[in-house]
């Protein structure tokens, strides 16, 4: 059986939009990372991203779509990311999926009891949890003067999926 034809029950698709595209993670059964990666967008970034997310929804047929709550009061996400997140969430209604939104703070509190930590530390935790799948994809720690590595989108998406699996929201 193809890895894409498992039962829909319990399948989660997490999307983490960024300025260059989006990271994604597909999890099933709470512990199985089915697929992951980064999709780049070009031209009309929002239209390209929506097309690619729609194709992923058709392929994986998730029961739940998980996104960062970019509209949260303290979110520092750009207007474009806020808009694309809202539109992706709205796509779930036509695909008969549930949507789970988590703020960056909720994800941080899941991984760190006091809510204080870094995205890189979360990425390291995830790489240790899935060493064969993601260990080699962990980028080096970012220097303050450098842009975030595009691969961090994968870890952002997996962090959202794990938060959903455990919190069961």
Summarize the topology.
Blueprint: E1 12-18, E2 21-28, E3 32-40, H1 45-60, E4 64-68, H2 79-94, E5 98-102, H3 104-111, H4 119-129, H5 131-134, H6 152-167
Helix pairs in contact: 1-2, 3-6, 4-6
Could you describe the 3D structure shown?
- The structure is a single chain.
- With 169 residues, the protein is of the alpha/beta class.
- The protein has one domain (12-167): Nucleotidyltransferase, domain 5.
- The chain contains 6 helices and 5 strands, in the order E-E-E-H-E-H-E-H-H-H-H.
- Strands 3-2-1-4-5 form a 5-stranded mixed β-sheet, with helices on both faces.
- Helix 1 packs parallel to helix 2 (79-94) and helix 4 packs across helix 6.
- The longest helix has 16 residues, at 45-60.
- The chain is globular.
- Residues 1-8 have low confidence and may be disordered.
Summarize the structure.
The chain is α/β, with parallel strands linked by helices and 169 residues long.
Keywords:
single chain, Nucleotidyltransferase, domain 5, 5 strands, 20% strand, disordered N terminus
Shape: globular
Number of structurally distinct domains: 1
Which regions contain 5 or more consecutive residues with pLDDT less than 50? 1-8
- Named at the architecture level, the CATH assignment is 2-Layer Sandwich
Number of helices: 6
Total E-strand runs: 5
CATH class type: Alpha Beta
Fourth-tier CATH superfamily name: Ribonuclease H-like superfamily/Ribonuclease H
Beta-strand percent range: 15-25%
């Amino acid at each position: 059986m193809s890895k894409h034809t498992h039962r829909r029950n319990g399948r989660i698709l997490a999307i983490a939009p960024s300025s260059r595209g989006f990271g994604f993670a597909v999890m099933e059964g709470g512990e199985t990372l089915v697929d992951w990666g980064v999709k780049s967008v070009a031209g009309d970034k929002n239209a390209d991203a929506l097309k690619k997310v729609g194709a992923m929804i058709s392929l994986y047929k998730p029961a739940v779509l998980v996104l960062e709550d970019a509209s949260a009061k303290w979110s520092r996400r750009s207007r474009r990311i806020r808009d694309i997140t809202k539109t992706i969430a709205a796509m779930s209604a036509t695909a008969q999926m549930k949507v789970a939104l988590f703020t960056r703070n909720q994800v941080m509190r899941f991984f760190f009891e006091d809510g204080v930590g870094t995205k890189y530390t979360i990425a390291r935790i995830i790489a240790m949890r899935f060493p064969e799948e993601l260990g080699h994809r962990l980028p080096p720690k970012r220097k303050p003067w450098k842009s975030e590595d595009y691969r961090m989108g994968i870890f952002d998406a997996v962090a959202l999926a794990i938060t959903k699996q455990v919190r069961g929201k």
